[in-house]
Amino acid sequence: MTTISFDCDRCKQPVTGLHTDSGTGGFYHVSSGTWAKYGREGEHFVCDACVQSMPEYQAIYGVKS
Question: What is the spatial distance between Cα 46 and Cα 39, in angstroms, rounded to a whole number?
Answer without folding.
Answer: 8
